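Submission sheet (multi-component)
Chains listed below:
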Amino acid sequence: MTTNFNELREWVADVAEHTQAARVHWCDGSEAEYESLIQQMLGSGDLLELNQETYPGCYLHRSSPTDVARVEHLTFVCTESEADAGPNNNWMAPAEAHQLMDSLFAGCMQGRTLYVIPYCMGPIASPYARCGVELTDSPYVAVNMKIMTRMGKAALERIEREKKFVRGLHSIGELDPERRYIMHFPSELSIMSFGSGYGGNALLGKKCHALRIASYQARQEGWLAEHMLIVGIENPRGETHYLACAFPSACGKTNLAMLIPPESHAGWKIWTLGDDIAWIHMDDNGQMHAINPEAGYFGVVPGTNAKTNRNAYEMINKNTIFTNVGVTADNEPWWEDKKTGTPAFDWQGRPYDPEVGPAAHPNSRFTVSAKQNPSYSELADAPDGVPISAIVFGGRRRELAPLVYQARDWAHGVLVAASVASETTAAATGKVGVVRRDPFAMQPFCGYNFADYWNHWMSFAERSDSLPEIFHVNWFRQDADGKFLWPGFGENLRVLRWIIERCEGRVGAQETAIGQLPHPSDIDVSGLDVDRDTMGELLTVRNAQWREELGAMGEYLQGYGDRVPAALRTEYQRIVEALEN
Ligand code: GTP
Ligand code: SPV
Ligand code: MN
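Outcome: structure written.
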């Protein structure tokens, strides 16, 4: 396979020459190709076979121990002007970044195969889908891209037709953390990633293209590219509302997107459209529609069990690539909180010793086709996506943020979203558990200045009278002993139900300084082991604490200077004043 599209053919030839790749393989995306890549990686040791009787089609990849998560300090947005990248991004001048990357890529693929991976983000027939080509020397990336995107022939045909695509160049290099960079050139629609083989650093369709580059394009073209799950919630009357929810990395998107309704909620159904990324467009009637640009899940493994997430638990027992989990003596994958089996080896292949560390790395992941999800919605393939009733933001906050509250209107919602802060997780390198500001759950992913991004979000108010309602949730409140106050997982449906009833205008709310909270009696806790006091605690706003929070937010906004939209300042001032009473 090759192409008659000169621009692409020439780029591939140039890269092959510069990197001195031993051969070039054009990926067609077929099952046969996937199988042969798996076999080849089993031979080279890149993949290990798991127990094929109990886990058919499942394999384990052990990444380099210093390459286990996204590296935010080595991720750059290279715009001409530093101010356009904003305080939220690391910045390097494009010329300097090109020079640096060109020197790293020079000769880096000697003896290796260069895989050409044409992919489409979004349903192949969708007007909202966008294509890219990733060039990589990693067969692991190639098989992951096959699961995570619409990859191969159909994507290439669309690229040949449209003559426009995002260029992604990737090499694992020597997997040396000292020689590792993830560079974005938004105005060139290009990405260069060197020195990591892991997740968002290496699967360039995902965070690099579908969020950083796409968010930049979305601003210019009037749409949104967001770190959001998309879920359909069907009530017992058969009516379905679609929600888009933004939570930071490892804060519950995959779990919410495929939750199983609790027993008390017979007749409710959940439909998964996406678990990580949403592209949102407004139609001619001012209704927002979302598509999921991805075709698979690259999800957090630890914590997945038959009780917390039975859908995920069953989804990953076949045709799944595991990265950095432990294994049992029977060669089954094992992870913390699996609740069954015993680990024999840890994620680095060492005999398991709890004194040394967990069996599975906290950021160990599964890669699996979305179609294996028992709650998969066929509408994930609908070219126009699904209409969005509500947008929900959330963070991981052991204190402060109540279980749920609603913004008064769109502008207030933008402030609520811009104010998201969350405890850091293992999804990125660095300290875990410290609260940091993560506006819109996009701190690591917005490809341009956050102030301009907030302005872009504000601008939708002028374009429509029927925008989604905006909410904020927090599943992670803890008591003094570190125990979660709210049971979470499937029980979160009880909160989503209040959100939907608010959208339908069927339930009231109590006004507080920060927004509208449920009357405690309006959250159905039947059959739940959560007492009145706990519910009271989960639904209380303490103005003194919030004044501190707003103080921190005010300082944060100052970092963006005059670029902060006036409407956001006005909303901020309104809350500060409300909290004074
Ligand atoms: P990324 O893929 O990194 O963007 O993360 P995500 O937002 O999809 O997070 P995911 O759903 O994988 O959840 C990450 C961790 O949070 C897992 O360890 C879950 O077990 C835990 N988690 C998810 N939902 C809940 C919840 O409702 N309550 C509690 N206490 N933990 C949860
Ligand atoms: C995240 O970190 O938000 C992820 C995993 O979804 S990665 O693909 O590595 O970005
Ligand atoms: Mn994510």
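Remark: Residues 6-46+75-222 form a domain with the Phosphoenolpyruvate Carboxykinase; domain 1 fold (CATH 3.40.449.10).
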